[in-house]
């Protein structure tokens, strides 16, 4: 499950890259934008502001779910659907980014999602 907390080698991620403000896109549409990125306990993740899509709440997404990053278009593509993101353990407060048990539950949820085929771009 450790790989859920690391960017996939073919994602286009560059160490130190600032993704704040990038549009986040799931398999079936946009989910929001990167509000911030963080790493606690070796668990690197993005906090995504969903705007009105999920009633103004944010979601926490492990970086292992990132399928691709397009720095010119400022987009981050995820290897999951909008419904899967919405069904993830609910993110309520920033303190949860420092809660090892909460992060583990999020990682476990995304780790159990069915694998996606990669698409050529």
Structural notes for this entry:
There is one protein chain. The protein is of the alpha+beta class. It has one domain: PRC-barrel domain (SH3 type barrels). Helices cover 14% and strands 31% of the residues. The protein contains 2 helices and 6 strands; from the N terminus they run ββββββαα. It has a 6-stranded mixed sheet. A hairpin with a 2-residue loop joins β2 and β3. The longest helix is centred in the last third of the chain and has 12 residues. It is globular and about 35 Å long.
Give me the secondary-structure topology:
Blueprint lengths: L22 E4 L2 E12 L2 E7 L8 E5 L3 E5 L4 E4 L3 H5 L13 H12 L10
Parallel strand pairs: 1-6
Antiparallel strand pairs: 1-2, 2-3, 3-4, 5-6
Organism: Streptomyces parvulus
InterPro entries: Bac_photo_RC_H_C, PRC_barrel-like_sf
Protein name: PRC-barrel domain containing protein
Describe the structure concisely for a colleague.
It comes from Streptomyces parvulus. With 121 residues, the protein is of the alpha+beta class. The protein is built from two helices and six strands; from the N terminus they run ββββββαα.
Question: Which key features would you list for this structure?
Answer:
Bac_photo_RC_H_C; 6 strands; alpha+beta; 14% helix; 121 residues; SH3 type barrels; 31% strand; six-stranded mixed beta sheet
Please give the largest β-sheet.
6 strands, mixed
The overall pLDDT average reads: 90
Strands in their spatial order, largest beta sheet: 4-3-2-1-6-5
What is the gyration radius calculated from CA atoms?
Answer: 13 Å
**Which CATH-level-2 architecture?**
Roll
Order of helices and strands: EEEEEEHH
**How far apart, in Å, are the first and last alpha carbons?**
27 Å
């Amino acid at each position: 499950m450790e790989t859920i907390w690391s960017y996939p080698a073919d994602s286009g991620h560059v160490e130190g890259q600032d993704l704040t403000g990038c549009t986040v896109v799931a398999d079936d549409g946009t989910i929001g934008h990167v509000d911030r990125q963080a790493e606690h306990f070796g668990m690197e993740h993005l906090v995504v502001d969903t705007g009105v899509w999920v009633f103004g709440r944010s979601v926490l997404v492990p970086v292992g779910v990132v399928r691709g990053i397009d720095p010119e278009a400022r987009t981050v593509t995820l290897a999951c659907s909008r419904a899967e993101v919405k069904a993830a353990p609910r993110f309520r407060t920033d303190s949860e980014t420092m809660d090892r048990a909460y992060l583990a539950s999020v990682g476990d949820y995304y780790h159990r999602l069915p694998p996606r085929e990669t698409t050529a771009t």
